Each structure stands twice: as structure tokens, then as C-alpha cells.
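I am writing to request your help with a piece of structural work I have in hand. The matter concerns a single protein, recorded as an amino acid sequence and a row of C-alpha cells. Could you please explain, in whatever detail you think fit, how the C-alpha cells follow from the sequence? Thank you for your consideration; the sequence and its C-alpha cells are set out here:
>
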Amino acid sequence: MTRTVLVTGAAGFIGAALAQRLLQRGDRVVGIDCLNDYYDPTLKQSRLSQIEAFAPAGAWQFHRCALEDSDSLMSLFADERPRVVVNLAAQAGVRYSLEKPAAYIQSNLVGFGNILEGCRHHGTENLVYSSSSSVYGGNRNLPFHERQPVNHPVSLYAASKKANELMAHTYSHLYDLPATGLRFFTVYGPWGRPDMAPMLFARAILAGEPIKVFNHGRMQRDFTYIDDIVEGVLRCCDKPATANPDFDPLQPDPATAAAPHRVFNIGNSQPTELLRFIEVMEQALGREAIKNFQPMQPGDVVATAAETKALEDWVGFRPSTPIEVGVGQFARWYRDFYGV
């Protein structure tokens, strides 16, 4: 085993997939998750069981811990001294942030501050953390690229993710902590979150129930398959951020810095109409959806699309899985897991 990697949110969609890939290539993985009930904890437990069944002896440890629990988190950092930290834990969901804003303050701000302190005081060599395409907010200038300002978030979730980028940059500047922020674009695939569209669509279509199609279907999303997301995260784990030697404070580039901090999009760069995504889902499941067209929801954006040249230049990778392939894989997993 080459090194210890701490993965927060290890029972989550991306965290569990990443943990398995890290174990597969020989890393020792320490996972933490609070296992909250934002969505069905049994799915989280099932993901953990998958990891445990896969992990070589001694290569995997799991701790139930919330990021807001500073004492427990600092004790874990002191015991494990991870060389790499991948922070995927967060209170997720755009719409939920309209209902429970305090959860986002605690997990995404207080909790992330604790992660930064743990890295600062315990010799972490590389921090990779999840941001989100939602930081682009009301921006309509597609495709989104990292050099664009992100000053107009339209949800507290988005604001918390932009705050994470600013906090990480500050620690990079003050304490020379290499940190990479990854703006994920609409991740989907096997073991996905039940509150996201693919899972909601699959459940309703197979049950013969209507699906909610917001903004009357006039939405575009840059759907990005889980394996592509994990590959991008892995490559950033292996290449810590460095300062940009050409950084110009008179014309500052928001994606880089004079400190070892970088921000990258991870998206498929193939924005898809929501109705087309539903059509592919119908084909994969062999059922037709009953569509309930609804208006735009507060906190939502009309379209997302990722420019990923910066990521490709940095780690030599760009997501490319077509939705026809990804949705097919998801549909097969869904039928198998839920027995439908």
C-alpha cells in the first residue's frame, strides 16, 4: 500500500466509487461519513458493504464522524496522518438548501473549515475537494470555464461551494497547502443519489407514476458519468496543485493563483436536453415516462455546460462517456439492485 488517503463522504455516491478505485490500485483508504438521513441510509450502508467486500485486509477503515465534530476529526487526523485528503462530504442538494439552510452552514462551511485545519496541522501533502457547477449560478455564458467570475450564486448550496474555494485558496496562500477544487457537473450512474433526477425518473417510470419535468423540459444539463468523475479525482490526487508562475495580480485568473491552489471543471462537455435524457432513460428501461411538466424551480439554472480544457491540460484526461452508455449501465444496476 503506497499511502493513506482520507476520503470524506465515503458512504456517498462519489466517495464510495472513489474508495473502491483507490483500494483497487493499492492505496490504504480511511473513510468517514456521518450517515445522515438526508436520503435512505440503507443505500449508504450498501455502498459501504461493497467497499468492505472489495477491500484487502488492513487496507480499509471506516469511521462514523461528522465534519462539524472538530474533536473527533482532529483525533482522526492525528492518528492517521493522511498524505492525501479528498473531501467529498457535504450537505448536498440545491432545493433542500431552500428548506434547511442551517445544515449547509454547519457541514459545508464549519465542516470544511475543520478539514482545512486538519490538513494544516497534520502534514497533508494534497487536498482535493468537491465544488460544483452550481457556483456558476445565473451565468448564461456557455460553456462555463474556470476563468469566468462566479459572483452570482442562486442557491445557498452554490454559495457554500464558492465559499469552499475561497477558504481553500486562503489556506494554500497562508500555509502552502496544495489544494484542488473540482466543479462536478450533474453526476449520474450506478449507486447514485435517490434525490437526483436519474433515480427519481427510474423509480417513477418503472412504477408507472408521473415524473416531474421542470421548466417544461426546457433544461440542459452536462450529465457526467460516475467513472469519468472518479478518474478525474484520482488524477488530481496524483498531481497536487502548484502555484501558477505566470499569475498576474493585475489580471488575476480565478482558476489559478500565486499559491498552490487550482480549480477545474469536471463535466462531459456534451450538454443534453432534459427531454433527450428522459428519452434515453425510457429506452434503457423499456418503459415510457408519464411527464408532468412544471415551472422552473427556485435555485435551479436553465443550462450547464463544462469547458474542460484546463483539466485535460493538467492531468491529461477529459470525461467522454456518452449518455447512451452511462444511462444503460445505470438502468441495469437499478433493476438489479431494486429487483424491478
User: Anything to note?
Assistant: Residues 285 and 331 are 6 Å apart (CA to CA). The mean pLDDT is 95. The first helix runs from residue 13 to 24. The first strand starts at residue 4 and ends at 8.
